[in-house]
């Protein structure tokens, strides 16, 4: 009996040692296999993200791993339903013609397929409409130039903006009262219509929006063949040599922070000094908010000025390290280099640029 027990112990111990050896061997194999080989990349990226290759992240950068999109919580409360009604309400504009939805179209990732937006009376704004699909994540800057600091503060600003809805905020409550909104505010907040309720309802609705899951989400959820070879190599480049994860990280692929990418275009017709224009601090010169890259193909054209219409071109300017000439008539401040130090020339080969573009197209 004792002999049998000892033999059993020995056997199970050697079995677990063998299992351990086997696991270690596999880990060694997969970390040793050459990542330039697509088959090896696929094997490595088929594992959970904690086993993925270490990304290229500069010192001091706070980042999160890429992750699948979550489903909305409490998507159907009376507050959210009211927010959705308000989002579609043209009476929130001076001439009853424009609702939020006018420039944030669901089919275009809640952005708009135009270079810059037009509001009441066809008045043109200065910037490209930004996608609203990332607002479920807590963040500290709103608008391309970060001039609003909470979503509740932000959502009232388009209403009174003269080139958007152009309605004085003092008129909002009477307009909604005339339109029969009182019962909806009672159900949502247990009180009469007020501006705080308008802001809270709109913000609550926007926080329920989510990007459409794509093949990339299926890949992240374990379907190893959901990305083709080129897209897979693009994912690896995005996290490593191309340095994109330094700013476009987490499930929504944004750090929600402000960066200068030399897009202020000083001295040119589209000059826009970004955060500096409202803060007046030189360190904010040309800074814009990192947009989410989820459902990117829907929110074309891109960047705050809407001047970029193809993703290959965007990859090319990142590859060049965002170097642009400065015209002679630019303000003197423009000559000092304030490019974000996270932006560097990348040295991507033509086929690597193609792979990175293919990855961006699947987001
Ligand atoms: C006339 C077009 C237009 C209308 C109408 C409009 N927006 Fe916008 N929206 C834009 C543009 C353009 C931007 C980017 C502007 C900027 O950054 O200066 C923007 C930015 C935003 C942002 C910032 C998102 C972020 O990540 O920082 C939110 C939120 C938003 N709009 C919500 C709304 C809501 C809510 C309404 C209705 C009350 C509305 N918008 C009406 C064009 C419009
Ligand atoms: C230093 C931070 C930073 C890094 C690194 C970075 N980005 Fe960006 N990205 C931004 C900011 C900020 C913007 C918006 C700039 C603007 O509009 O002026 C942006 C805009 C974009 C856009 C346009 C999205 C839209 O909705 O308009 C794309 C596409 C993009 N980046 C892809 C990439 C890729 C690919 C890489 C890696 C090669 C990368 N980014 C690296 C910060 C960064």
UniProtKB/TrEMBL annotation:
Residues 229-363 form the Cytochrome c domain. Binds 2 heme groups. The keyword Signal applies. Residues 1-18 form the signal peptide. The keyword Signal applies. Binds 2 heme groups per subunit. Its cofactor is heme. It is found in: Periplasm. GO terms for molecular function: cytochrome-c peroxidase activity; electron transfer activity; heme binding; metal ion binding. Heme c 2 binds at residues 244, 247-248. It is an enzyme of class 1 (oxidoreductase). Heme c 1 binds at residues 100, 103-104. GO terms for cellular component: periplasmic space. Keywords: Heme, Iron, Metal-binding, Oxidoreductase, Periplasm, Peroxidase, Signal. Its EC number is 1.11.1.5. This is Protein CcpR.
């Amino acid at each position: 009996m004792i002999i049998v027990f000892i033999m059993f112990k020995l056997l199970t111990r050697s079995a677990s040692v063998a299992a351990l050896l086997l696991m270690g061997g596999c880990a060694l194999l997969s970390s040793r296999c050459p990542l330039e080989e697509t088959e090896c990349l696929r094997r490595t990226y088929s594992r959970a993200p904690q086993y993925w290759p270490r990304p290229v992240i500069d010192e001091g950068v706070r980042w999160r791993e890429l992750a699948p999109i979550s489903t909305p919580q409490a998507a159907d409360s009376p507050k959210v339903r009211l927010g959705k009604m308000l989002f579609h309400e043209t009476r929130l504009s001076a001439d009853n013609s424009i609702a939020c939805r006018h420039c944030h179209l669901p089919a275009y990732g809640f952005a708009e397929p135009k270079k810059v937006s037009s509001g009441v009376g066809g008045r043109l704004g200065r910037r490209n409409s930004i996608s609203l699909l990332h607002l479920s994540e807590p963040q500290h800057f709103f608008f391309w130039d970060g001039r609003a600091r909470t979503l509740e503060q932000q959502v009232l600003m388009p209403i009174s903006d003269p080139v958007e809805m152009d309605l004085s905020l003092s008129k909002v409550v009477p307009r909604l009262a005339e339109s029969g909104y009182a019962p909806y505010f009672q159900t949502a907040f247990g009180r009469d219509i007020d501006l705080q309720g308008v802001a809270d309802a709109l913000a609550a609705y926007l926080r329920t929006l989510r990007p459409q899951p794509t093949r990339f989400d299926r890949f992240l959820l374990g379907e190893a063949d959901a990305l083709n070879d080129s897209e897979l190599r693009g994912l690896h480049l995005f996290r490593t040599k191309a340095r994109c994860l330094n700013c476009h990280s987490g499930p929504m692929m944004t750090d929600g922070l402000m960066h200068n990418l030399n897009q202020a275009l000083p001295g040119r017709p589209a000059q826009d000094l970004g955060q500096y224009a409202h803060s007046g601090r030189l360190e904010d010169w040309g800074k814009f908010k990192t947009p989410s890259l989820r459902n990117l193909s829907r929110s074309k054209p891109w960047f705050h000025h809407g001047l970029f219409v193809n993703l290959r071109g965007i990859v090319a300017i990142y590859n060049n390290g965002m170097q642009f000439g400065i015209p002679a008539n630019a303000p003197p401040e423009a000559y000092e280099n304030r490019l974000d130090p996270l932006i560097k020339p990348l040295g991507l080969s033509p086929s690597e640029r193609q792979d990175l573009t293919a990855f961006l197209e699947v987001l």
